[in-house]
């Protein structure tokens, strides 16, 4: 009996290690980060499994997914922190085939949870989607460029990633971060897509001509004509950006939805027709700029 328990424990630990770290983002120090976080969290998951077996009976393996998921956010944060990234770690969604071109999503100020469905929907089209906190990119310490570069490098190093440049999609605050920093990284980024992006910060740091002058990546932007959310994302500002881009030869397309407010792709201000149109334009842009992406 004791031998069986030892064997079961050994198998459980190895199952946990394999399941726990499958799909984690890769980077130079990833293996070291995995090892340290493994020591910290595998015992926690094992204890959770044992507790559930004692309480409910059944096979230990049936409880591994739930126990693993319960500490996943902390575990990812552990790996991310040891790799030198700051703030909450990524949430990734692998495509059905297991591998795909990388699409990086930058959330709004409401955090990553409201964007998981969008990320999973993109992943089903064949992309490897990594969702991160927009607050970590458009941040007061102005270290968003470095964090974005690290996030891209980590995503590209994942076993789920196909080689090549990535696409960055930002929502609201995350959209502002994409405008500020993704547009300056043409060596790593093929396209930027911004949904009702934050733009009110621009006048606090520079003028529009200088800001747009740094654009080096094709940009597709969506805006709601009735967007008045905290004055962050006014139509007039994004239109001024579009006019400046055209005048300076920058690649930018702006799509304005006359009756849309902020967050028109979800929540209380959701507008099905506008959200569907933006989705079709988004997937078309991804197909265009991530050349070997699947047809859909």
How does this structure look, described?
The chain has helices at 2-21, 30-56, 64-70, 72-82, 116-124, 144-156, 173-181, 202-205, 208-213, 235-247, 272-289, and strands spanning 91-93, 102-106, 128-132, 166-171, 189-195, 219-224, 252-257. The relative contact order is 0.10. Helix 1 (2-21) crosses helix 2 and helix 2 (30-56) packs antiparallel against helix 4. The longest helix has 27 residues, at 30-56. By secondary structure, it is α/β, with parallel strands linked by helices. Helix 10 (235-247) links the parallel strand 6 and strand 7. It folds into 2 domains: 2-82, no CATH class; 91-289, Alpha/Beta hydrolase fold, catalytic domain (Rossmann fold, 3-Layer(aba) Sandwich). Mean pLDDT is 84; it is low at 1-29. The chain has a 7-stranded mixed sheet with strand order 1-3-2-4-5-6-7, sandwiched between helices.
Mass-distribution shape = elongated
- Secondary-structure-based class equals alpha/beta
Strand order of the largest sheet: 1-3-2-4-5-6-7
User: Low-confidence parts, pLDDT < 50 over ≥5 residues?
Assistant: 1-29
How would you classify the quaternary structure? single chain
Q: Average pLDDT, to the nearest integer?
A: 84
Radius of gyration: 21 Å
How much helix, percentage-wise, in residues? 40-55%
Name of the CATH class of the largest domain: Alpha Beta
The CATH H-level homologous superfamily of the largest domain: Alpha/Beta hydrolase fold, catalytic domain
Number of DSSP strands?
7
- What is the CATH topology of the largest domain? Rossmann fold
Proportion of strand residues: 5-15%
- Straight-line N-to-C gap: 54 Å
Order of helices and strands: HHHHEEHEHEHEHHEHEH
Number of helices: 11
What's the number of structural domains? 2
CATH architecture verdict of the largest domain: 3-Layer(aba) Sandwich
Main sheet attributes: strand count, strand direction, barrel closure? 7 strands, mixed
């Amino acid at each position: 009996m004791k031998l069986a328990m030892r064997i079961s424990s050994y198998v459980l630990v190895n199952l946990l290690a394999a399941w726990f770290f499958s799909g984690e983002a890769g980077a130079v120090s990833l293996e070291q980060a995995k090892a340290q976080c493994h020591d910290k969290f595998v015992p926690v998951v094992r204890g959770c499994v044992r507790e559930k077996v004692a309480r409910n009976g059944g096979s230990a393996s049936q409880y591994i997914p739930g126990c693993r998921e319960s500490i996943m956010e902390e575990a990812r944060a552990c790996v991310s922190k040891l790799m030198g990234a700051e703030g909450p770690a990524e949430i990734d969604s692998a495509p059905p085939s297991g591998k795909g071109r990388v699409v990086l999503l930058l959330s709004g100020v409401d955090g990553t949870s409201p964007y998981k469905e969008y990320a999973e929907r993109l992943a089903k089209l064949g992309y490897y989607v990594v969702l991160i906190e927009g607050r970590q990119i458009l941040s007061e310490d102005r270290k968003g460029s470095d964090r974005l570069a690290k996030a891209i490098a980590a995503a590209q190093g994942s076993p789920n990633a196909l080689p090549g440049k990535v696409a960055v999609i930002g929502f609201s605050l995350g959209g502002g971060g994409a405008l500020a920093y993704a547009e300056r990284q043409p060596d790593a980024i093929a396209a930027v897509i911004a949904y009702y992006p934050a733009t009110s910060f621009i006048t606090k740091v520079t003028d529009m001509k200088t800001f747009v002058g740094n654009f080096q990546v094709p940009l597709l932007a969506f805006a709601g004509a009735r967007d008045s959310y905290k004055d962050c994302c006014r139509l007039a500002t994004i239109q001024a950006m579009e006019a400046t881009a055209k005048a300076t030869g920058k690649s930018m397309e702006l799509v304005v939805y006359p009756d849309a407010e902020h967050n028109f792709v979800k929540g209380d201000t959701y507008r099905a027709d506008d959200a569907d149109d933006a989705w079709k334009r988004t997937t078309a842009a991804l197909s265009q700029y991530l050349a070997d992406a699947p047809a859909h």
